[in-house]
Amino acid sequence: MLPRPRGVIFRDPDFGSRMLRVTDGSTNFKRPGTFLRTAGNGETNMWSRDSHKFYVLGSGGWLYAFGFDPINMKVTTLPGAQPGQGLLLPLRAATFSVVDPDVVYGTTGKDPLTITSYRFSTAVSSPVIDTTTCGTSPPLMKAPLVVSDDDLLAATNDTRFSISEGGPNAGAHMFVMVYDKTLGCRWYNTQTGEMGGQWGPAGNATSSDRFPIRHSYLSKNGRYVRILVDYKGFYVWDIATLKVTPCYYRGMQALECNGYGAMGYSSFVNGPAVIGGMQVAKRPLNNLARITELVYPVPSPREFDYPLHFTWSNDLAGDNTPVCASNYNYEGETDIDRAYAGEIFCIETDGLASTIWRFAHNRATWIDPYFNTQPSGSISRDGRWFLFTSDWDAQLGTGADGAPRSDVYLVNLN
Fold it and tell me: In terms of Cα–Cα distance, which of 9, 41, 39, 40 is closest to 22?
């Protein structure tokens, strides 16, 4: 299937879902002819609360926001942007407000240790918290090689935020920072084990492990942070306590810790691929061993070459809304030889049945080592729209920067 022009609605030929190409080679006007993509983690709120705005990421770290008309499935130009262009956001690592569709949060290149809000209607940026004032041990200092990660999240009606920071890049950070607008800061130094701040107990974490942080993600109830560690697994921190629970890739096979995942309100979903590539596990964050298998039986053939990327930004209290996923062949193979391969689908999470709703083929061809060729997705808060990245069967060519081109696409989840 040839790539459609930007802005033209078309239907997936296999499932009939309405789709739209959001970007093309001209969208990233700061670097014309280069790739566009979605956030790579599936956790970030790329959609506004009312589904009338979203943003995409361009090569070079530029963020472009667009308006969206969900009735007519049309991308629109926001005030302040040139006709047909995205609004260039003065942020990096952005995530939309949980409650206010006019607000997006992020950090800036000039001040990566300050969480900042941006209001679209006024085009005004305002500081939320300068995390160097949070009283960490040792003190967090502004310096050229001291930055924050792209894992900023807001929860509990924008009253609580989390971010990891303190190192030169992802995989080398040492602080998980939590800021509560009422209580103040709370922090965890994962390289010393020390916790402190303006609320909660101070002392050492219950886990004796010491590690650098790859990413950290806040649950939607604001109670837990999942901390990812390269090649090792992840940890869950019960923020109001000193309790840190490990989930290792090796040595804890029964906990099914492997695979990409997504945080819900108080639960976590991942694709451990212990018994097959379509295995999907759900567990409460306060009991990682209480696993519910969401896909049963796991479809045959039980291959392991299609890792699942999840997005659950539509989740609510109760953790019963569908979780959505996209996958790709990690060896770059393009043949679709089984159900769910190279697809976008959503999975029932309420435990009443094991329903999988299939919507489209994402047509993403993984070209190692370019992560923008993976079909990472972001679901709207109302659960009706799914943004994803695709190089459209590698038909978009090579960009002006030498990297494979990818664009952002949209599928209607009806």
Answer: 9
Tens of pLDDT, residue by residue over 276-295, are 999 999 999 999 999 999 99
- Rounded to 5°, the CA angle 109-115-118 comes to 85
- The count of other CB atoms within 10 Å of the CB of residue 204 is 13
Contact 340, 372 (CB under 8 A): no
DSSP 365-405: --BTTBGGGS--EEE-TTSSEEEEEE-TTTTS-B-TTSSBP
- CA dist 175 and 163 (Å) reads 8
Measured between alpha carbons, how far is 412 from 141 in angstroms, rounded to an integer? 45
What residues have CB less than 8 Å from 44, skipping those under 6 apart? 94, 95, 150, 152, 153, 313, 378
Average pLDDT for 374-384 = 98
Rounded Cα–Cα distance for residues 185 and 113 (Å): 13
- Which residues make Cβ contacts (< 8 Å) with residue 296, sequence separation at least 6? 354
The 3-state DSSP class for residue 255 equals: helix
Q: Which amino acid is at 330?
A: Y
Task: Report DSSP state, residue 319.
Answer: S
Assess contact for 390 and 374: CB atoms under 8 A. Answer: no
The answer to whether the beta carbons of residues 264 and 312 sit under 8 Å apart is: yes
Sign of CA dihedral 332, 334, 340, 345: positive
Rounded Cα gap, residues 411 and 73, in angstroms: 10
Token code pair at residue 34: 């280069």
Question: Domains (ranges, CATH) in the chain?
Answer: 9-412 (2.130.10.10)
The rounded distance, in Å, linking the Cα atoms of 350 and 352 is: 6
Predicted confidence (pLDDT) per residue in 107-152, tens digit: 999 999 999 999 999 999 999 999 999 999 999 999 999 999 999 9
**pTM for the whole structure:** 0.97
